[in-house]
Amino acid sequence: MNQEPRFISHEPLRFEEKEIISRSEELHHFAEKRRSIRQFSDRDIPFEVIRNIIMTANTAPSGAHKQPWTFCVIRSQELKQKIRIAAEKEEKESYEHRMSDRWLKDLEPFGTDWRKPFIETVPWIIVVFKRAFEFENGEKHQNYYVNESVGIACGMLINAIHNAGLATLTHTPSPMNFLTKILDRPDNERPYLLLPVGYPANEIKVPNLTRKSFDQVAKIFD
User: Fold this and answer.
1) Dmax over Cα atoms in the chain, in whole Å?
2) Is the pLDDT at 1 greater than 70, yes or no?
C-alpha cells in the first residue's frame, strides 16, 4: 500500500526587486574571487567549520531525496600520507603514460605535475563518495541520478568552503579506487572527488586566467 506523501508549509524568502538584483550581483562578485589553490598553509581549522560546510552541501537536491553521498573527513596525518603516496603513484602514471600530448599542453599554463604535497599540508581532507545503491533490511535499493546529485552537492560544498574564507582544489586522481581501500568504504560507495580544505599559503601566486563572458556561456530564448 502506497504511503501518502506528507507535506509541510513552506516559507519562501521574499525580497524586493532591487534587493534581488543587489544580492545576485554581490554573490557573483564574491564567487569571482574563488580560485583553485595548490599551495596551502598548515594553519588549523576548527572542526565546527568543516561540519558546517558539509551540512551546507547536504542541503543539495538529489534524485528522490536519496542524498546519495558520503563525506569522509580526514585529519589523521597517517591517512593523509597514505592517500598522498597512492594519489601520486596514479598521477605520475597519468602524466607520464596516460595523458595525451594535447592534454599535457593544456595543463602547461597551470604549472601542475604529479606531485601533490598539499594532501599532507592541509589540516583537513574531504573525500566525497557517491552511493550507487543502499542496503535496507538486507535488500538492495537503487539510488537515482547519483552522479548529478553528488555533482550538485560538491558544487555547493566548494562554494561553502569559499564562503568560509578558505580554499580548496578539485582533485580527481584517476583511477581513485585506492581511496575506497584506504578509507575502508563499503561496496555501495565509489570515490568521486578529493578536496583539500585549508588556508592558502602566504604570498602565493595563481595563473592569470579570465572566465568566459555571459554571451559565451549563455543563450537567451525570449
Assistant:
1) 63
2) no
What pLDDT, on the 0 to 100 scale, is given for residue 4?
73
Residue 100, classed as helix, strand or coil, is: coil
Q: Cell for 109?
A: 599554463
Joined together, the cell numbers standing for residue 120 give 599532507
Q: Give me 49's grid cell.
A: 567549520
Count other C-beta atoms under 10 Å from residue 172's C-beta: 11
For residue range 60-99, list pLDDT tens digits in order.
999 999 999 999 999 999 999 999 999 999 999 999 999 9
CA dihedral in degrees (107, 110, 114, 120; nearest 10)?
Answer: -150
Q: Sign of dihedral through CA atoms 211, 158, 116, 41? A: positive
Alpha helices, H only, 13-145: 17-32, 47-57, 77-93, 101-107, 118-121
* Mean pLDDT within 137-146: 92
Quote the CA–CA distance of 161 and 163 in Å, as a whole number: 5
Which residues, at least 6 apart from 112, have a Cβ–Cβ distance to it below 8 Å? 38
Give the pLDDT confidence of 10-27 residue by residue, as tens digits: 999 999 999 999 999 999
Domains (range + CATH), the chain:
40-200 (3.40.109.10)
Exposed e or buried b per residue across 177-201, where buried means at least 16 C-beta atoms within 10 angstroms of its C-beta: ebbbebbebeebbbbbbbbbbbbbb
* 183 vs 98: CA distance, rounded Å: 26
